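sorry for the late reply, my laptop died twice this morning and i had to redo everyting from scratch. anyway the thing you sent over, i finally got around to it. pasting the sequence first so we're on the same page, its 241 residues, then the predicted structure underneath. double check i copied it right bc i was rushing
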Amino acid sequence: MTYRYVVYDIHKTLKKNFDDADITVNQVLYWVMVVANKIRAQHDLLVNTDMFTSTYCPVEILTDEKGRKYIDLPTSIMSLPNNAGVVYMSYNIDTNCCSGPAFAQTFFQPINMGEVQGLYLDTYTKPSVKQPYFYRVGDRVNGINVNRLYLLGLECVDVLDLEIAIKSTLDPKTLCNLDDDLVVPDELIQDLTMEVLQMGRFVMMIPEERVNQGEDEVQMQNYRTPKVPESQNYSTQTPES
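ok and here's the structure:
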């Protein structure tokens, strides 16, 4: 199912109900992507599917001003429990990059930022080259907007890049073609359509959009109501006898 089919079908339905409303295709497209992201996350939590998984390799490992190693996420990811939006991260321990059978090599384990200190208190959980961890910083670092995964256990080795698989979200900024596939299970397209229609009807509850005038407002702007002549007062004089 493509974006064009779904978006134009919903746009046509909304225009039939609100023929004088200013509803654009771009607006409907945004609604579709917002609802689709919600449905995709709910479906993934229910069945744990790889339908929404994307892989990236190589992803360069960088170092910030404090000497901490990190990667920039290549795209937006689902906000799932226990950082499940990251399916896996791995690198080849022999080559210190993602070349070779990186998928079957060393894996990074997810951890919350507040739990990092506890890792170093136990020998069995301490981050190392063979047991690396990652935590996410998805808002700001020193006032700069970021979307990063910080890496633990690679402080003493020079790893160049890694491979990552993530469960991505739909981003309106990256969509260039309405004929691209809308990656939502076909059996959930009906649910998506119904939710977007409900969203459109809710928007139409704005006071100035509640009344359907049944006519084009643009044409009415050029129409002038004819002026009715003002009534004149005539004084009646009684003739002198």
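Helices lie at 3-17, 25-47, 116-119, 189-203, 217-221.
thats about all i looked at so far, will dig more tmrw
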